[in-house]
Fold this sequence. Notes:
The protein is of the alpha/beta class.
Amino acid sequence: xGELFVVVNAxxxxxxxxxxxxxxxxxxxxxxxxxxxxxAPHLRLRDAAGATLMERNWPVEGxxxxxxxxxxxxxxxELLDGATLLGAGxxxxxxxxxxxxxVRVTEAVLEELQALSPLAPLHQPHNLxxxxxxxxxxxxxxxxxxxDTAFHRSQxxxxxxxxxxxxxxxxxxxxxxxxxxxxxxxxxxLPRLGLAGARVIVAHLGNGASLCAMRDGRSVxxxxxxxAADGLMMGTRCGALDPGVLIHLMDTEGMDARALEALIYKxxxxxxxxxxxxDMRTLRASSEPHAAEAVALFVYRIQREIGSLVAALGGLDAxxxxxxIGENDAATRAEVAAGCAWLGLTLDPALNAAGRGRVSxxxxxxxxxxxxxxxxxxxxxxxxxxxx
Length: 388
Ligand code: AMP
């Protein structure tokens, strides 16, 4: 019994959904993941402690996104088990310039979000599909959209601009920044870490990776720009790239927009450089020189971009690691920190190996922390704020 929110995070080949209690601390009671849409559709349902409750496979034929959403919704209805569903919250990648916070979805809002699809063609349509499906099935259920871009709207205008002709920025070609729900969650943890007014860089290092510079818990600059392809090297994305490379490839290899998209989003990064895998665990376990080179480049790019964000902040008080690699890979943290010695950062090897809370040495003038992120929990909090 009780009151619950459902939080939906729909991507290009997977749908995550979770039931969260509608009272603080908004704990997740069930988490579902349908992945392998288009390859080998598979569902795993976990309880609050992460133990698997159910697994299911489907034949790939006919199992499209619409079917995955329908399966997720049917399961979620079953899981309610007499509890009241108060609303559905959605992770939506792009809120454009307009949405600087979460919004209650109406038909007009949906149209506005649909119009932003060209800015994030690989994600936005998938994010909006479950909103439409739920609206058709339960038109009275409140739905809240939470954006990956919204947290960055606090950046000064100069941090959001490209040096392109003015008409381009007027047409929306600007730096938006992403991973905003993760950064917003980490920002909410800063007071408890004694970093409320501090100059902080948060390193969200997962399959997607970016950095965010924060002052007073607000975004000042970030490494992702117009799309989630900019900035750091990632699992399969190249990160910052001389735009001349793209023109060169168009001229010499006849690559078109789709081929370049596949190159920079799917074939590059750790996967492209190692020729082996996009997964940090696999690369760390490998003795292949190209695997080590890929990891070294990943770390080097982070070190370089930290330098840039320190300049934007005018100094640094703390570095926070989060997401799959940031939370779990002590070697990456140690290597990144070694390149920040010039800032005065020293890790404590034992604390870094333990990997939670403060990981910097007692005397280090710049501190470092590991804080697990919680994007879905952040959405649940927003829902309570909007629906309460
Ligand atoms: P995410 O996108 O946040 O789920 O992060 C995925 C990335 O985290 C992948 O590159 C994983 O290899 C990496 N990762 C997860 N656990 C570990 C671990 N124990 N050690 C190193 N990397 C890890």
